[in-house]
Amino acid sequence: WKKDAAAPMEIDNVCDVDDNYEDPQLCATLASDIYMHLREAETRKRPSTDFLETIQKDVNPSMRAILIDWLVEVAEEYRLVPDTLYLTVNYIDRYLSGNEINRQRLQLLGVACMLIAAKYEEICAPQVEEFCYITDNTYFKDERFWIWKLPSSIT
């Protein structure tokens, strides 16, 4: 059987996973506060839908598409988990939503976001030197420190 996803749920049939107040490790007393905080953070950090038209002057949708296609190839080459790629694209879009960037730095932004995402998602994340290599050494040791200037609000 198939239910309509928009149909109201039957509250009586929902299992409350936070009803075990006896186990302090489950943090059941804090569950609603944690959920509200995470939901608020999710909506606050969401990338805008029109950042390429409103904020970016030197980057257009086709450039972003080329960057994402290249990052897909990089993720396949290094056998990164899919979540690393998804998180990379999210970081790129969130950065582009709040910061203007010139096209010469777009690939560096992509590499930086993939490096950060890999540190969160991968068991063995690629090293910075490997990311320099995959860009045909377009970005050298000095420029890779630009990565650390990215605002921590994107993560």
TrEMBL record:
PROSITE patterns: CYCLINS (PS00292). Coiled coil: none annotated. It comes from the Eukaryota. GO terms for biological process: cell division. Keywords: Cell cycle, Cell division, Cyclin. Residues 69-153 form the Cyclin-like domain. PANTHER family: CYCLINS. Belongs to the cyclin family. This is Cyclin-like domain-containing protein. It comes from Aegilops tauschii subsp. strangulata.
